[in-house]
Design a protein that fits this description.
- The protein has 390 residues and is of the alpha/beta class.
- Helix content is 40%, strand content 15%.
- α7 links the parallel β4 and β5.
- α3 runs parallel beside α10 and α4 crosses α9.
- The N and C termini lie far apart (63 Å).
- 48% of the residues are buried.
- The structure holds pyridoxal-5'-phosphate.
- The site of pyridoxal-5'-phosphate (PLP) has 15 residues, from α4.
- Pyridoxal-5'-phosphate binds next to α4.
């Protein structure tokens, strides 16, 4: 491949990594290569074969190279969704008879994949409460093959210190895998801390405009080759057009994240102490249990803010209905502010008691803070708070 690894900071990497050195007359923006197959492959068949399902379409490799550069890993592969990235990673690292230890505070579909799908395929799974690092060691078995956690959890935005887990994984020679979707490489580089594999739902901050579905896995060449081998067989390829949109999103990741971080911090402070607000959850506030860890390890506290409203589910409904700028929709990481209620979406399957144990009060509203003007968001959320009082 003629593409380049370039030197420079994250903004430079996001813009330039993965594109080929130009020759006279080339377009500045790499075109969409909307082709399933490519000329050639007769000389060294297996090595050179280019095929979109193989993950080596030029738009896919541009994304992969940008992400390897941004996460500081040897290699990366871009796939059709965050779940494809997660599933192919588990399939690459664990087979029938193996065991996985994962955090219990993870994305709902990932929990179902681990507990229901992988167990049907002979992979046993133990979920541990990540609050206590000792839980991980206790859960290890002779056949444990990987450890999995989320860097910043949904929706209580916990950012547990990953370093004890890194030490444990290294001591046991196990790959440590993180889903770093909520942080994005602009705010956290898990590989710098010793995490082996970094997964993203690129549908969120990496794409950044709520207009594509994609996933990325970053890690050593050996692990990524095995993830790619699984993806070639199971087939969750990233469409070239979505890959092109994703590369476009990654070019502005660092400025978007800087503004997400600023808007979210300002908004979290604004919510604090306001009438009708019982609690504001944001790692950038000193009231957050992981504030010190986040301050030490992260370049920004992220774009997600959660608020717990007085008056439970009724208040949360009234608040969300009154909003005119923020849109009521699941998902996160786009330029537009989105609000959702975990009790009706990601944590719907749980009982009130189980949700309460996770800190999800009925009045819990999760906000993916977008890039609108802060005053407009404040006006919108004032409208929401007034609607509760009416
Ligand atoms: C959205 C999300 C996923 C799943 O990603 P898709 O692109 O929807 O498949 C996985 N993990 C986290 C933390 C997410 O937010």
């Amino acid at each position: 491949m003629s593409s380049k690894r370039i030197h420079g900071g994250p903004s430079t990497q996001g813009i330039h990594a993965g594109s080929s050195p130009p020759i006279e007359g080339d377009p500045v923006v790499p075109p969409i290569v909307q082709s399933a197959t490519f000329f050639g492959g007769w000389h060294d068949a297996a090595l050179d074969l280019r095929y979109t399902r193989y993950g080596n379409n030029p738009n896919q490799t541009e994304v992969a190279e940008k992400m390897a550069a941004l996460e500081g890993t040897e290699s990366a592969v871009a796939l059709g969704s965050g779940m494809a990235a997660t599933a192919m990673t588990f399939l690459a690292l664990a087979r029938s008879g193996d065991h996985i230890v994962a955090s219990s505070r993870i994305y709902g579909a990932t929990t179902t994949l681990l507990k229901q799908e992988l167990s049907r395929r002979g992979v046993s799974v133990d979920l541990v409460d990540p609050e206590n690092p000792r839980n991980w060691r206790t859960a290890l078995k002779a056949n444990t093959r990987l450890l999995f956690f989320e860097a910043v959890t949904n929706p209580t935005l916990r950012a547990h210190d990953p370093r004890p887990l890194v030490r444990l994984a290294q001591e046991c020679g196990l790959p440590l895998v993180v889903d770093s979707t909520f942080a994005s490489p602009a705010n956290l580089r898990p590989a710098d801390l010793g995490v082996d594999v970094v997964i993203h739902s690129a549908t969120k901050y990496l794409g950044g405009h709520s207009d594509l579905s994609a996933g990325v896995v970053c890690g050593s060449a050996a692990i990524i080759d095995e993830v790619r081998r699984m993806a070639i067989l199971y087939g969750p390829a990233l469409d070239p057009h979505a890959a092109w949109l994703l590369a476009r999103g990654i070019r502005t990741l660092s400025v978007r994240m800087a503004q997400h971080n600023t808007n979210a911090l300002e908004l979290a402070r604004w919510f604090e102490g306001r009438d009708g607000v019982k609690q504001v959850i944001y790692p950038g506030l000193s009231s957050h249990p992981d504030h010190e860890v986040a301050k030490e390890l992260m370049r920004g506290f992220g774009g997600m803010v959660s608020v717990v409203l007085e008056g439970g589910g009724q208040a949360a409904n009234a608040f969300c209905r009154a909003l005119e700028i923020a849109l009521y929709a699941p998902s996160l990481g786009g330029v537009e502010t989105l609000v959702s209620q975990p009790r009706l979406t990601s944590h719907m399957a749980l009982s009130d008691k189980e949700r309460a144990e996770m800190g999800i009060d009925p009045g819990f509203v999760r906000i993916s803070v977008g890039l609108e003007d802060l005053v407009d968001l404040q006006r919108d959320f004032s409208r929401g708070l007034e609607a509760i009082r009416d």
